[in-house]
Amino acid sequence: MMFVITIFILILCFINNISSLSCFKCMTTNILNDTCSDPFNPIYNRFEPECQATIKGRNGIFPARFCAKISGIIVDIDQNLNRSLIHKNLYLRTCITENIMESTRSLDSTGNFRLKNFASIHGEIKMQGTITLCTLDGCNQANFHTMNILTVLFFFFFIITQK
After folding, report:
1. Long-range contacts for 158-162 (Cβ within 8 Å, ≥24 apart)?
2. Which residue from 36, 69, 76, 145 has the fewest beta carbons nearer than 10 Å?
């Protein structure tokens, strides 16, 4: 009986991975008068439940696997974009389907990077800044760590039953 209860609790702990993520979505280059920049205020920004995004080379939109927060300074842009964006700060919060940082084996990276036809940017921009990916609902609102409440309950239940 104890084994069945343990399995049931484990299933509940991972059930949030069945549906797509819910992420904040916003973008700004005006950090003095915009709520998308840091410090972030979730009250004034769009929270998209069951966030969906495109996949390169495929038609349609698909359930997101990551929420993303990209922040930094635009150092160069495609000739098709507005040149006045160079040297401006960019904050972008969105959802994506693929790990755009697979080569780093990390969900957080700082340095120089390039975004090409990413989110609502049509063209290529080169940035110096930070990309952070996360896999919990609403996790792209700030840099903090959260824990699934069912995981905590499972461990609490496990500790109590061991006595």
Report:
1. 158/6, 161/2
2. 145
What is the length of the chain?
A: 163
Q: Name the token pair of 93.
A: 């919060």
Q: State how far the Cα of 138 lies from the Cα of 66, in Å rounded to an integer.
A: 10
Query: Tens of pLDDT along 14-38?
Result: 544 446 789 999 988 887 767 888 8
Quick check: pTM over 0.85?
A: no
- The ranges assigned to domains in the chain are 22-138
C-alpha span between 48 and 152 (Å, rounded): 26
φ/ψ of 124, rounded to 5, equals -125, 135
Beta strands in 78-161 (DSSP E): 89-96, 108-116, 124-134
Q: Which of 146, 21, 147, 33 is nearest to 93 (CA)?
A: 21
Residue 145 near residue 139, CB atoms below 8 Å? no
The tokens describing 158, both together, are 């496990």
- Smallest Cα–Cα separation from 23: which of 106, 99, 136? 136
Query: pLDDT digit string (tens) for 107-154?
Result: 888 899 988 877 667 788 899 999 999 999 988 875 443 445 555 455
Angle of CA points 63, 119, 123, to nearest 5°: 140
